[in-house]
Protein 1
Amino acid sequence: MSDKNKRLDLSYSQMKWETIFKRILIVMSVIMLLLVAGTLVTLIVKSMPTIKSLGIGYLWGKVWDPVNNVYGARPFLMGTLLTSFTAIIISTPFSYAVAIYLGEYNTKGWLSNLLKNTVELIAAVPSIIYGFWALFVLVPIVRSFEMKIGVTPYGVGAFSASLVLAVMIIPYAASLGTSLIRMVPSPLKEGAYALGATRFEVIRSVILPFTRSGLFAGILLSLGRALGETMAVTILIGNTSAIGNTFKDVFFGPGNTMASVIANEFSEADHDLYYSALIELGLVLFFVTVIINLIGKRIITKYTNK
Amino acid sequence: MDARIKLRNTKSILFKALIIFLAFVITLPLIVVLLYIIKMGVVQVNWSFLVHAPTPEGVAGGGIANALVGSLLMVGMSAVVAIPVGLLAGIYLSENPGTRLAYYTGLCVDILQGVPSIVVGIVIYFWIVKPFGFSAISGSIALAIMMLPIVVRSTEQTLLLLPDSLKEAALSLGVPYHRVIMKVIVPCGFAGILSGIILSIARIIGETAPLLFTALGNVYISTKVTGPMDSLPHLIYFYSKSPYQDQIDQAWGASFILLMFVLILNITTKLITRKWNIQL
C-alpha cells in the first residue's frame, strides 16, 4: 500500500513538473515579446521630447547644432540613404554573380564549397575589423584616387564607407539567392534547353524571372544590414553634421549616418533634448530596419512555400 | 543562320566568364583584409602583449589583457543568460507551431535579428546603465539580446527536423513531457543547437556598438562585473582614433586576436554541421 502511494506521489510530482516545464517554455517565449515591446516603448518614450517640440519637421531639418539646441536629422538621413544605396548598387552585381554561379553553374564540388564558405566568411568578420583595416589601408587609396579626379582629398567620407559596406552586405543577398536559384524546378530549365536556348538565355529568361522576387528579398535583407551598420561606417564616414554644398562634396567628403551620429554623440549628450533627438534617430532606424526585414522575410516565406 | 547560333553561343560563354569573374573577384577584399590583419597583427602578439594591461599613452610596452579578459568574461556572461532563454524559447516554437504565441514570438525573433546593434545599446543604456551605472553586466545583457535570435532560430530549426516518432516513442513509455524534451529531443538535436550557439558567440564577440554606452571600456584589467570593462572590439575602436603609433600597432594585434577567435568559432561550426550533416 505504501509502495503504491509512493509511486502515485512520484507521478504527481512528475505531473507537476510537466506543468511547470510547459509554463517555463511559455515564459521564455513571452520574454521575446517583452524585449521587442520594451525596446519600442523605451525608444518612443525617450524620444518624446523631440517628437513633441520639433514634430515631423525634425526629420527634414537641415541644421544639426546641439550647442545652440538646433536639431535637424536631414544630414543623417541623407548620409544613411546615400551610403546604403551606393553600397547596394555596388554589391548587387557581385551578389547576383555569386548566386548564379553557386546556384546554376557550379552547384557541387570543392570549388563551389570553397566559394560558398568564403562568401559566408565575409559576413563573419566583425565590422570593427573592416572599419579599422579600411581606415589605414583603403582610406589612403581613396585619398589618392580623389586627388586624381580633382575633389578635395578627405579620404574618409560616404564614398569610403559605401565601398566597405558594399563588401560587408554581399553574403546576405548572395546566400539567399543561391538557395533560391537552386530551387528552380529543372523541368522549366530543361524545357528551355529543349527549345534550343543557350545557357545564358535560360538564365535570363527562365531562372531570373522565376527567382525575381526572391532575389529582391535578398537585396532588401542586405539593405537592412547596410542601414543599421554602425562601427565600420562610424570609423570611415568622417563625422561631420554639415551637409556639403555640391553632390561631389556630399559623396566624397565627410558626413554622418544615423547610426554613426548616435555612436559618436550619445555619450556626449548633455541635455534632454539632445538625448531625445539622438534616440529619435534610433527609433527611425528601428522602424525602417524592422519593416525592411519583415517585408524581406515575408517574401521569402511566401516564395519558399509555393 | 550559322552566324546567329555562333553569336548566341559566344554570348553565353562570355556571360559565364563574366559571372565567374565577378563571383571570385568579390572574395579578394576578404582575402586582402585577412592577410593584412594577419601580417600586421602577428608581429604584435607575444606573451607580454597578452598578459599586460595598456601602459599610459606614449609609454612603450603594455598589452591588451584588459580587453581580452573583458571580452571573454562578457561573452561568457551573455552566453549564460542567452543560452537557456534561447534554448527554451526555441523548444517552445518547435513544440507549438501554429499557436498564436508562437506566431508572435517568431515575429519578435525576426525583429530582434534585424535590430541594429546600436539601438540595442541605447535601450540597454536606459534599462540598466541609467539606474545602475556603466557595468560589464549591462554590456553582457546587450550582447545576450544580440545572441538570442540566433540561438532561438537554430534550436527551432534543428528540433523541427527531428522525426515525431522519437517523441512519440518516449511518451508512449510513460516518460513525462519535460524529460522527453530534455533527455530525448534536445540530446538528439544537440549538434545543431551547439553549432547555433557557437555561431551566435562568433557573432557577438566582435560587436562593438552595443558596448559603447554600456560596458564603456577600462584601461585596467578588471573582473568586477558591476564596473566598466574593456573588450577587444571596443579597444580597437578606441585605438583607431589614437594619435600614438604604438596604440595603433596594438590595435592591429587586437584585431588579429579577435579575427582568430571569430575564424576558429566559425570553422568549428562548419565542422560540426558537416559532421552531423545539418543545415542551418
Protein 2
Amino acid sequence: MAEEHYPEDLKYHPEHDWARVEGDAATLGITWFAQDALGEIVFFEPPAVGTQLIKDSAYAEVESVKAVSEVIAPLSGEVIEANGALGDAPETINDDPYGEGWMVKIKLADPGEADGLLDVTAYRQHLEEGV
Amino acid sequence: MNPDAQKVTGAHVTETPMQAERATTIFEKSHPGRRAAALPALDVPDRDVSELLPAGAARARGPRMPEIAEPEIVRHYNRLSRRNFDLDSGFYPLGSCTMKHNPKLHERAAALPGFSRLHPLQPAERAQGALELMWNLERSLSEICGLPHVCLQPSAGSHGELSGLLLTKAYHEDRGEHRTKVLAPDTSHGTNPASVTMAGYETVKVATNERGGVDIDDLRAKADDSVACLMLTNPNTLGLFDENIEEIASIMHGVGATLYYDGANLNAVMGVSRPGDMGFDIVHVNLHKSFTQPHGGGGPGSGPIAVSDRIAPYLPVPRIAQKDGRFELNTDEPKSIGRMRGFQGNFGVFVRSYAYICSLGAEGLKAASETAVLNANYMLAKGREGRVGKYLPVEFDRTCKHEYVLSAAPAKKELNVKALDIAKRLLDFGYHPPTIYFPLLVDEAMMIEPTETETVETLDGFIEALDKILEEAERDPEFVQNAPYTTPVRRLDEAAAARNPVVTQDLDALA
C-alpha cells in the first residue's frame, strides 16, 4: 500500500475523491484516505464510455474486503475514457491512488464547477476535522 | 481464557498440530469400491435410464461421488467441525446475528417422526398437525409483531425483505400508483438496498442524526409521492431505539408510502414494543435469530412476514386457512404476488421456533429481550473504563438496546492495530469476534451483541480479553497484527480469496 499523501495539483471533493483538471477534461479517482479506509480493494467496475456523470452523485462502486462503497463524482461530465486495467488489478487503487489507480477521464460539462472543489490545504483540514 | 492464548508470547510461535495438518476434501479420501452402506436387493423391475427419462435429460456420465466407508465419513466431518467455531464451543457476540443458545429441547421436538418424516408433498388432510403448528406459529408472530396477518414462506431475512417489497409494489400498483424509490437509513443492513434493487426500486439513503437516529429533516426532504416505502430497523444497527418513530411513521404515511420493519433486531423488543403499534405495515421476523436456530454458516433460516390489513390481499400463496376445525392450504387469492418458494417454507425451523415460543411463553419472551438489553448495557458500561474505554470508545453513547457499536479508530491511530487485528486476536482467547466494519457509518466499527443466554462471567471475560489485547498492542503492536496464533488456520488473505477464489476441485487430477 502507498504512503499517505495528497498531491498539490489536484482538486478534492469532501467525499474523498480527487480530480486532475486539464483544460476542459479531468481525470478522477479516490484519495489515499479513501483507499485506506476501504482496505484492500477486490473489485472495481468503471462506467462505460459515454456515461454522464453528475457532480456529487455516485458513478461507480468499489468493493473492498470490508464493504461495497459508492464512488462520488467530484465534477459533472461525460466519460471519455475508463481505466479498464482496474478490472483485473483493482489493488492498483491501493498501490497508486493518484497514478495508475485513476478511474475515469471525463469531458467537463461545466469547467467552472472545479472552482467549488477543495484545494489540498482545505482537504487536509477536512480530514483533520475527522469527517 | 483459552490456555493456548497465554502460551503464545512474543516471537516464539509454534505451529499447532491442526495448523500442520493439510485440510483435505472428502474426494481426496475416496477409494474405488469403498462403501458406507449395503443396499438391499432390488425389488422392483430393473429398467434402463433411457426408458425413464426423455432423451437429452440423462447425464452423459454418472456423477462423481466420493467412495468412502462410514468410519472415515464420520471422522472427516468430525474433523471439519473441530476446525469450526460454533456457539456450543464459545461466546459468539456477532452483532446483528443474535447468536443465542439453541435449547436442546427444540431438537427433540423437531426430531419427532410426525415432523421430521413428513413429506413436503403430503396432502393437507394428512398433515393436519404440521399445519396446526404453522397456524399457531403464525398467530404467535402476529401477536409479537402487532400485525394481524402472517406468511411463513420466506426462507431468510433478505427473502422476507424481497417479499415485503414485492407486496409494497403490488399494493401501490393495485391503487394505480407507480412509485420508484425506497428510503433506507445510511445505517441499514446491506441486504436492504440489495432487496430494493431486486424488487426494481431505487434506494435513497436517509442521513443519521447526532443521536444515532433518523435525521427527520432529511427524511422530510426526501419523502414525497415517488417514495414507495421506508425500510427501517428499530432499534437500528447502532443498537439504538429511534424515539421519533411515531413522527417518522406519520411522515411516511402522509405521502402514502408503506413502512417496512427489518426484524433483524427484534430480540431487543419482544413483548416490550410492537412494530405494528409503531405504525409499520410489513415486518419480517428472523426466526433463526430471535427465535433460536443453529444458523451459523448460512442456514437454515426463516424469514416470515407479518403485515397490516391493507397489505394482506397480496400475501404469497398458499395461505393456511382454518375451516371447521380443519386446516387447509388456500391458493384462491387473486391479488396474491404468488409463491416466494417451493412448498411451505423451512418447516424444521418452524418447529424449533414454536417450541421456543411455547416453552418461554409471553412473559419469558419479554424477559429474554430485557436480559439481552441488560447484558449489552452491562458490557457497554464495563467497557467504558480502562483501555477499552480509551481505545475502543462507544460511538453514540446512549443506553443501548441488545447491541452496541464501538469504534477502534483510536486503537488504529494510537496503537496501530485495527478492528480486524483485535477481532483476529480474540479468536486466540476462545471468543468469536464481534461484527466488524459495520455499520459503515462508524469508523473501524466493532458491533457487539451478547444476547440473553450468556453468564456475567462470560461477559466479564470478553471485556477482560479486549483489555488484555490492547495491553499487548501497547507493548508490541506487531504481535496483535499477526494474530491469530492458535486457530486451525492463521491469518487468511481475504483480498486474495475475493480476487482469486478457488471454488472447484479437479477430480481427474486426484485419480
